[in-house]
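Long-time lurker. I teach an intro course on protein structure, and each term I like to show students one example going from raw sequence to a predicted 3D structure in token notation. This year I'd like something fresh instead of my usual example. Would anyone be willing to generate the tokens for the chain below so I can use it in lecture? Attribution to the forum is fine with me.
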Amino acid sequence: MNTDTGKQTASTAVRCNSLKAWVLASRPKTLAGAAAPVIVGAALSWATLVSISGNIFSSSWIIPSSICLVFALLMQIDANFINDYFDFKKGSDTSERLGPERACTQGWITPAAMKTGITVTTILAFLCGLPLIFYGGWAMLIVGILCVLGAFLYTTRLSYQGLGDLMVILYFGIVPVFFTWFTSTASVPDKGSLVSYLLCGALAVVAGFAMGFVTDNLLIVNNYRDVEEDRKNGKNTLVVRLGKKAAEWLYLINGCIAVAGALLIGGWMKKYYSGTGPQIESFFPFHLLIPLLFLPFLYSAHRKMVQINQGRGLNAILGKTSKNILIFSLLLTTSIVVLTLQFWFNG
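-- Reply from a regular --
Happy to contribute to a lecture. Here you go:
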């Protein structure tokens, strides 16, 4: 995802093509959005292995999940470089830009150097992801290629056609959560019953949707801030199509959908672990509604976004939204861990 979070940086303090310039171009504050879904996928991997083996110290998930994390971070940096370069070439980043400064536009990185940076990070991400073939089979090669294509298509085409939000839900939700879970559990010889394993896979998909919707709020704020500039540049984002008032509601709705998904995961896990029927008291774990703690953070960010409404002040909401993504992922992970530990202790 190609959004910036944080305050603008004084370009005069950055030497062209320096290490500091490359760090700024990588947009470090966006990396939480890349790490968060992998964290959730890793938690579900551990929970799946515990349900199969009954061993909370199972560690076979650690290496593939770590590879997924590094791959996700490299792909995020790669996407940021791609976005920086192609928006500069298109002239989308002008002096009227309200968001944090971009590396090529500010002269921190030359276009030629940025092209080299894109090539290097793409190759590094690809090489880093290759070992996942050992865990998830050759299908992982196709997934990796699609991730690289997605990074290029997002900036060059899809974001201009209002499809950026779907890309975020897919590539910052479903893909990283599900395939972190899949690569971390697929190579385990004994997966228990097929039905149980498929249920865990379904949980990973639901968790992917939850992470995708909460992460999409970062794009909503970014496009909410840039709505007028995007209209001028012919960039038909979802906010341009729906309008700012609808975008404000969408921010809340996305967060609520994510929380609902987290509660559904908790309910399914509670029912699966307890082995009981669909009685409401066993399906709905009232004592483990940890994801609901996210709602105050969601509402606080939404209220400030509406109050600020326009201008560079919305960059602070980008930072707050980025933190909220990490908070939600940690709350969902905590819910998964607590339910799994309860299963283990009761077993």
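Some talking points for your students: The CA atoms of residues 104 and 110 lie 6 Å apart. The radius of gyration is 21 Å.
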